[in-house]
């Protein structure tokens, strides 16, 4: 990294956080042929003087979870006198009110994790169909009743071949899921925010939110990949569960709040659907590395006020579907592409919000 004190004419990109420090070289690589751009890193340590120096010169800033979750950092960044663009190494902007940002400040999200999330989705579908966890537990207990040599007239688990997969949202992640589901001979359908002129490759049909009841009613597996916004918050409610097959399996890699919390718990507890794989939640521990006791019931921290740990028809993961080695690297490659588009005078393709400046003091840590 070049020293901040050299070459005043340089244009600066600030990269924050431990992950930013690890992958800053990917951003530098995007500017190999543009030496006037300099990447400055602050890894979210205690050196606030360096943080403030980086902020004072940056035209673009790459945020990180540890940067945002540390009190004072976000507000300090918003005072940057040269700041024109901020980028986040994830997709969802539900945490970010444009009013928190100075007027005109652009926000970009990041891609690079669709493959990892699609593999996570397919793994949950396969686990449910094949009941691998139960088969493993049976073997440890000496139970061989699932064997093909048994005397039972019926098998005890299924497969994905020929099943119908319904996707709520049809962006990069859903498209990657469809590519993989086709290899299992699944029939795929989806709904998206806006109507499509033609049915995308790999889909039997595509509709809009008005077609949600049809999608839920036809699907053996329902996968949520949509954004969280005013239209999607709570869209999977008690009525939606009423449209689903009793044998249906739900996978959520979107945001927890896309599903009404109480309706989800009741549908699983009462077995109105067969089960669910839940990767996103309604609350998160303050300290991810050493989670505090659950505020409602003590014991292990849960991502809901309801006791999902007590259910035997759920697969619980800690919002990790996009957090793989390759996906983390892919995000910063994506960020480098957006920064290069900006440097070339374009509005980046992944531009998702613009600051309005009408609630600058309203930011609360997500």
Give the helices and strands, then pairings.
Blueprint: E1 11-16, H1 17-30, E2 37-42, H2 48-57, E3 58-62, H3 65-69, H4 73-77, E4 85-87, E5 106-108, H5 114-130, H6 132-140, E6 164-168, H7 172-182, E7 187-191, E8 205-207, H8 212-218, E9 221-224, H9 238-243, E10 249-252, H10 261-269, E11 275-278, E12 314-316, H11 325-343, E13 351-354
Parallel strand pairs: 1-2, 1-3, 3-4, 4-5, 6-7, 6-9, 7-8, 9-10, 10-11, 11-12
Antiparallel strand pairs: 5-13
CATH architecture of the largest domain: 3-Layer(aba) Sandwich
How helix-rich are the residues, as a percent range?
A: 25-40%
Strand content: 15-25%
- H and E order: EHEHEHHEEHHEHEEHEHEHEEHE
Spatial extent as radius of gyration: 23 Å
Low-confidence stretches: 2-7
Number of strands: 13
CATH superfamily of the largest domain: NAD(P)-binding Rossmann-like Domain
Main β-sheet: number of strands, strand sense, barrel status? 7 strands, parallel
The number of distinct structural domains comes to 2
Terminal CA distance: 31 Å
CATH topology of the largest domain: Rossmann fold
Notable features of this structure?
single chain, Rossmann fold, seven-stranded parallel β-sheet, six-stranded mixed β-sheet, 366 residues, 13 strands, alpha/beta, 2 domains
Overview of the structural elements:
There is one protein chain. The protein is of the alpha/beta class and 366 residues long. It folds into two domains: 11-112 and 326-354, NAD(P)-binding Rossmann-like Domain (Rossmann fold, 3-Layer(aba) Sandwich), CATH 3.40.50; 114-316, NAD(P)-binding Rossmann-like Domain (Rossmann fold, 3-Layer(aba) Sandwich). It is 31% helix and 15% strand. It is built from eleven helices and 13 strands. It has a seven-stranded parallel beta sheet, sandwiched between helices. Helix 1 (17-30) links the parallel strand 1 (11-16) and strand 2. The chain is globular, with a radius of gyration of 23 Å.
């Amino acid at each position: 990294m070049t020293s901040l004190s050299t070459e005043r004419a340089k244009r600066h990109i600030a990269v924050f956080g431990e992950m930013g420090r690890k992958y800053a070289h990917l951003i530098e690589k995007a500017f190999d042929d543009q030496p006037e751009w300099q990447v400055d890193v602050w890894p979210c340590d205690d050196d606030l003087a360096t943080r403030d120096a980086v902020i004072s010169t940056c035209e673009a800033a790459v945020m990180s979870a540890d940067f945002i979750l540390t009190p004072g950092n976000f507000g300090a960044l918003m005072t940057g006198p040269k700041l024109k663009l901020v980028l986040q190494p994830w997709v969802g902007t539900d945490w970010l009110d444009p009013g928190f940002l100075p007027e005109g400040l652009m926000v970009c999200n990041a891609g690079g994790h669709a493959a990892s999330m699609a593999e996570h989705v397919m793994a949950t579908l396969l686990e449910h169909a094949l009941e691998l966890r139960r088969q493993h537990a049976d073997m440890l207990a000496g139970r061989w009743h699932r064997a093909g040599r048994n005397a039972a007239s019926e098998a005890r688990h299924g497969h994905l071949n020929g099943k119908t997969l319904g996707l709520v949202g049809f962006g990069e992640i859903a498209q990657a899921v469809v590519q993989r589901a086709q290899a299992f001979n699944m029939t795929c359908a989806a709904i998206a925010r806006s109507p499509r002129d033609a049915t995308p490759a790999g889909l039997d049909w595509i509709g809009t939110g008005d077609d949600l009841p049809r999608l839920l009613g036809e699907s053996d597996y329902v996968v949520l990949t949509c954004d969280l916004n005013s239209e999607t918050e709570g869209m999977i409610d008690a009525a939606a569960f009423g449209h689903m097959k009793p044998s249906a399996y739900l996978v959520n890699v979107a945001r927890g709040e896309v599903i009404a919390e109480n309706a989800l718990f009741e549908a699983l507890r009462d077995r109105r659907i067969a089960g669910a794989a839940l990767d996103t939640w309604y609350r998160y521990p303050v300290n991810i590395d050493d989670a505090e006791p659950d505020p409602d019931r003590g014991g292990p921290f849960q991502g809901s006020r309801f006791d999902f740990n007590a259910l035997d028809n759920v697969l619980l993961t800690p919002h990790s579907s996009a957090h793989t080695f390759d996906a983390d690297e892919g995000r910063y490659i994506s960020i480098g592409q957006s920064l290069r588009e900006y440097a070339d005078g374009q509005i980046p393709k992944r531009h998702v919000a613009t600051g309005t400046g009408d609630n600058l003091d309203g930011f609360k840590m997500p």
